[in-house]
Amino acid sequence: MPKFAANLSMLFNEVPFMERFDKAAACGFKAVEFLYPYAYATSEIKAKLDHNQLKLVLHNIPAGDWDGGERGIACLPDRIDEYRAGVAKAIEYATALGVGQLNCLAGKAPAGIDPKVLHSTFVSNLKYTAGEFKKHGLKLLIEPINTFDIPGFFLSTTAQGIAILDEVGADNAFLQYDIYHAQRMEGELANSIKKYLNRIGHMQLADNPGR
Description:
By secondary structure, the chain is α/β, with parallel strands linked by helices. It folds into 2 domains: 1-60; 64-93 and 102-211, TIM Barrel. It has 7 helices and 7 strands; from the N terminus they run E-H-E-H-E-H-E-H-E-H-E-H-H-E. It has helices at 20-26, 42-52, 80-97, 115-135, 158-168, 179-185, 189-196, and strands spanning 6-7, 31-33, 55-60, 101-104, 139-142, 173-178, 200-204. It has a 7-stranded parallel sheet with strand order 1-2-3-4-5-6-7. Helix 3 (80-97) links the parallel strand 3 and strand 4. Helix 3 runs parallel beside helix 4.
């Protein structure tokens, strides 16, 4: 049976972030996920989780300057050191908060850089990340994002994601399948999910249009 988690980055936005844990619990959720925990101390988040008897099932690896429009840096060849420092930070938070899986956003492809360089950088960073995560019993996820909402996003289709996972070759690396993004980019959701179900580590659900 599927288990559902409230995404606190998307839901209950009428209240500040730290109050959304209470809202999720009041609605009957037993688990939550969100994009980034790094603006808060692990002790603050853990207190909210414990108070509401919630399990945190997912957050993202740091993704660069989010407020400045960045949506990941894992494919950027001039940001490798920053990315790998973010991996260490993500492991620190995941370990403290009891999270078993973390999502890596590839980032937007900059103009003027050979796509082959972006690809090789992304694959290299994923191999590194999967290795570091394995030391801590963590699962690595990668997520295709539609290029209507985020033009130029490097990883945009399920097939591309699966091909990259094949190249990475790590048994703790999986696809994060977002139904909203997949519908916008490719449709054929039922067939795609059936085909790749054993490669999907986490699913996210939102409607299209409207999300």
